[in-house]
Q: What sequence folds into this?
């Protein structure tokens, strides 16, 4: 079964750091780009960051650029999101999602995790 | 970069058809064929319904269809069913500092 499973969410003080992980299974992980998408309470979906299948190309939303770092370990089929200098507005459910192509952003995301909740206390 | 523009809500009766619009700019929806649509029910993972404007992943009902004209993409749901009640989001590749844009979401109510 094709699956994505996030972990690492929790309560963190403003200005703090958190590292999210996403374990993938059931497909050739290195053949697809993967992204993080978040949903703040009462808000819509927001794309956060994406990485190509090789890990060589990374992309960020303006709202997190310079604070978040996406990476992947293809040997362990795992995606990461290092979040630093966290703000109240980063409070959200964070989803990892497999994209349909090797290059990030092109096409759509066909496999999603159930999400992990990040709460930044002010 | 602003989010793509969707109506906040739409409604329809069982058996009817509805269309949700998604308006962008010449830097995203208007420039590329990388528009996708998602169904999102509360507490669940989003589900890909349409990719590349018109393509349907295997397993997605043929009642869902996509189209695009200029800077506006559309999702049509035909033969509305109670189970279609959910939030729907469009997304597009964007040639800007933010690679992917989502719409603000549309809440579908089946009357």
A:
């Amino acid at each position: 079964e094709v699956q994505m499973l996030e972990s690492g969410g929790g309560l963190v003080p403003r200005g703090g750091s958190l590292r999210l992980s996403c374990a993938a299974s059931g497909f050739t992980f290195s053949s697809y780009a993967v992204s993080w998408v978040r949903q703040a309470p009462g808000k819509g979906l927001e794309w956060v960051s994406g990485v190509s299948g090789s890990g060589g190309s990374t992309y960020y939303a303006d709202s997190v650029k310079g604070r978040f770092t996406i990476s992947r370990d293809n040997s362990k089929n795992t995606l990461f999101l290092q979040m630093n200098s966290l703000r109240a507005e980063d409070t959200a459910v964070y989803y990892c999602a497999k994209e349909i192509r090797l290059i990030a952003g092109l096409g759509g995301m066909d496999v999603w995790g159930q999400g992990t909740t990040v709460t930044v206390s002010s | 970069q602003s989010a793509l523009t969707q109506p906040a809500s739409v409604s329809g009766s069982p058996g009817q058809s509805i269309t949700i619009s998604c308006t962008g700019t010449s830097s995203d929806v208007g420039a590329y064929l990388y528009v996708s649509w998602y169904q999102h029910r509360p507490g669940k993972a989003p589900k890909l319904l349409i990719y590349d404007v018109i393509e349907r992943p295997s397993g997605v009902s043929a009642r869902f269809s996509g189209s695009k004209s200029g800077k506006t993409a559309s999702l049509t749901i035909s033969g509305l069913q109670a189970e279609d009640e959910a939030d729907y989001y469009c997304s597009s590749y964007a040639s800007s500092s933010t690679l992917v844009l989502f719409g603000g979401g549309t809440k579908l109510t089946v009357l």
